[in-house]
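# step 3/5: fold
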Amino acid sequence: MIDFDSKIPFENRENDILTVGELVIDMVYEEQVTLSQPCTYKQFFGGSAANVAINSKQLGIRAMVAAAVGKDNLGDYLLNYLAKACLDTSFIQRVDESTSMVILNKSQGTPTPIFYRMADYQLNYTQTLAQTVARSNVLHVSCWPISMEPARNTVEKMITLAKENHVLISFDPNFHSLIWNPKESKAESLAYIKTMIQKVDIIKPSEDDAERIFGKGKPERQIEKFLQLGARLVIMTLGKDGVIASNGSELLRFPTLATEVVNTTGAGDAFWSGFYAGIIKGYTIQDSITFGGMASAYKLKSISTVADLPKLERLMELYHIKHGEVIA
């Protein structure tokens, strides 16, 4: 169990957070229409794990991302974007398959994605990756790499190493049946995800994530299911209804800080980043959850999947927040 009023005592390591997962092209329809209608779209940098790394660095902590892209122009675009964001690209593997892509409709609710997966799950385990895990304070994993081999095997080895080195492990259960290995049934996929939950410390599902994994249910009951599977802290984002979180002993509610919603894509990634910036900078878990909501609210005002976040301290000023509390 992780107490809400506690601070996580991180060791003095070279890196704060290593994210592992998807690095993709997001093609976002500019009008709010269904994907069956003709429409213009715009190319964006995308991928949840990559977004978390960039947003975390913007907020003022050290971050790296491990992913795979193709040896093509789209892969070049993604690497150049990371370089401009001042992220180390040493852990981005170039593979022969085409760079993966997601087509999304601009949405004020949950966007409707179409997935084209090729390069992203070709992430291989290397000694360099192993060394970086041991030198990081947090290992953040999304659902994408565990859905297919060889990336699944890579993540499993990284988690084992993280546990051996007392690295905090976080899991984004952004499950979608369309990204999963077609050779596995949905039941097999969900069973594997549940074994993953047993291995992690912190999990942040959205309400939609929880429904895809457990079926429909009240948020409080969904959180109980995650805790029963072994997670030490569950943070569930509920859109306009804010956030609820539980450590198995206490359940807290946090109101939304959003005042404007332009595009919801990437809001969950911004939340992760705000939360990580808080715990790394020595704030309590409760304060850090508030910071997550703050970063998410800022992102919701942007059409881009990766918002240009200011440093955490400046963001706190913009939202009139001190020590996690909104100042009247």
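# step 4/5: annotate
The first helix runs from residue 48 to 59.
# step 5/5: archive (pending)
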